[in-house]
What we know:
Layout: E1 2-7, H1 8-14, H2 16-24, H3 26-44, E2 46-52, E3 63-67, E4 70-74, H4 81-91, E5 98-101, H5 105-113, E6 117-119, H6 121-148, H7 158-167
Parallel strand pairs: 1-2, 1-5, 2-4, 5-6
Antiparallel strand pairs: 3-4
Helix pairs in contact: 1-2, 2-3, 3-6
Amino acid sequence: MDRLIVDGYNIIYAWPELSATKDVSLEDAREALIAILADYAALGRLQVTVVFDSHRRPDAAGSTQTISGVRVVYSGRKSSADSVIERLLFEAEKADEVTLATSDGVQRDLALGKGIKTMSALTLKSQVEAATSRRNSQMRDRRDRSDLSRRLEDRLDPGSRERLDRLRGLKPPDQKPT
């Protein structure tokens, strides 16, 4: 399974809608990013890990949890998100198809040096939007096809439909088929 490692705050600051949300509530911005990544992970059958800094808070302990299928890592007070991402990159197996999403040049250079693909925050945004758009289009197409074929009687030829109407008592038996 492909893996995506996301530099959480880097993405939040780069995406305009998340950046505006963080100005009101950083927690809401994190939750929104996690929800977006969960949807994207499901659409692309990806294993997503998002890493957030928490080293600047003296009471912050490092933690890892899974939210809606997304592995969420908080760095803790003794390390930064960058150091957690570096560890994840070095732990990646050769057989893993790993991509790092960040606009941090140092992190991207480190990943590229290890042979790991990278994408900028805005490239991730465009890929998420494209995947969501494809899904929405497929859902509209399925709904439209479903609406067309919802009733069996609407798919019957006129003769079969008339015989069905007679069986259901909607037409008298002596009436000739048309």
